[in-house]
Specification:
about 260 residues, mainly beta, 13-stranded antiparallel beta sheet, disordered N terminus
C-alpha cells in the first residue's frame, strides 16, 4: 500500500472550427457533449472516477500488503527469514513469531509448519508439506496518503515439498486514504485463490485474489457509499489484470502498485 500513482486521464479532442450547429459534438460550448473535457457544463462521471480510485487503492494495497506478505511467507516456509523480518522466538509448541516494519507499517507473523501427516514440526524447511500463517498489519504508510491501516489475514502455503508453493487464505483490511483529491474509508475482504510462486520468485506465476469492497467517498463535499467486487489475476508477468464489477479493467504494476486503465 505505497504511493498512489494513478493520474487523472485527459482526453485530447480535435476541434472543428466554424461550426454554428449548437449540437455539434466538437463545439466546447455544447453541454450535450459529455466527452469534451473543456466544457464546464458537462456532467462529471463520478462512478468512472470512483472506479479509477478503487483500482489505485487496490494496486497500492497489493503492492505493499498482499504480494509482500506472500513473498515473506514463501521465504519463511522454506526455512529462511527475509532480511527485514525479525524473528522473536516461540509463542507456543512449535509456533513461531516474527515481525517487520516497512514504510511505517508493522507486519506481525505467527506461524507453524506441518508435515504430510498434518503434524506440526519444530522448524520450517523445504521438506515440509505446508505452513499456516496469521498475519496482522497496522500503521500508516510513509510517503502515501494512507492511515489507520488494520489488517488480519489467515493463510496457508501448500506444495512446499514438491517445489510448487501456492498461497490460499482470507484477509480483512480497513484503511483511510486520500486518492485523487478524494477522501476514502475502505473496507476490503480478500480471498487468495491458488496464488502460485517459484520458491525464489518475486511475482506470482498464476492464481488470483478476489475482493469484496465497501467504500465511503467524500469529494468536493459530496459523499457516496458504494460497493465493488474485484478480481486480480496473476500470470507470471510484472503486472496483473484487475477487473472491477466484471466491466472495468486495469493493469496493476506489481513493482510499484500503479494502476493503468485498459
Amino acid at each position: 500500500m505505497r504511493a498512489f500513482l494513478i493520474g487523472a486521464s485527459i482526453l485530447a479532442l480535435s476541434a472543428c472550427s466554424g461550426s454554428d450547429d449548437p449540437k455539434d459534438p466538437n463545439d466546447p460550448s455544447d453541454p450535450n457533449d459529455p466527452s469534451d473535457p473543456n466544457d464546464p457544463n458537462d456532467p462529471v462521471d463520478h462512478e468512472a472516477r470512483d472506479y479509477d480510485d478503487v483500482a489505485t487503492a487496490i494496486g497500492a494495497s497489493v503492492h505493499l500488503g498482499d504480494v509482500g506478505a506472500m513473498l515473506d511467507m514463501m521465504v519463511i516456509s522454506h526455512g529462511g527469514m527475509p532480511t527485514d523480518v525479525t524473528y522473536h522466538g516461540l509463542v507456543g509448541a512449535n509456533v513461531h513469531h516474527a515481525s517487520s516494519v516497512r514504510d511505517g507499517v508493522t507486519f506481525d507473523f505467527v506461524y507453524h509448519c506441518n508435515d504430510n501427516a498434518d503434524a506440526i514440526v519444530p522448524q520450517c524447511n523445504s521438506t515440509v508439506d505446508h505452513s499456516h500463517f496469521t498475519i496482522k498489519v497496522t500503521g500508516s504508510a510513509a510517503g502515501a496518503e494512507m492511515s489507520g491501516i488494520t489488517t488480519k489475514g489467515v493463510f496457508t502455503v501448500r506444495d512446499i515439498d514438491i517445489v510448487k508453493p501456492r498461497v490460499g487464505g482470507t484477509n480483512a483490511l480497513d484503511f483511510i486514504a486520500r486518492v485523487n483529491n478524494a477522501d476514502y474509508l475502505f473496507s476490503f475482504d480478500a480471498v487468495l485463490d491458488h496464488v502460485r510462486f517459484e520458491p525464489s520468485g518475486v511475482t506470482p506465476l498464476s492464481g488470483k485474489i478476489d475482493f469484496s469492497i465497501m467504500a465511503n467517498r467524500s469529494r468536493n463535499n459530496v459523499t457516496r457509499d458504494f460497493a465493488v467486487t474485484a478480481a486480480l489475476v496473476f500470470d507470471g508477468s510484472a503486472s496483473a489484470i484487475l477487473t472491477l464489477d466484471g466491466v472495468k479493467r486495469y493493469s496493476i504494476d506489481l513493482a510499484t502498485g500503479a494502476a493503468a486503465k485498459l
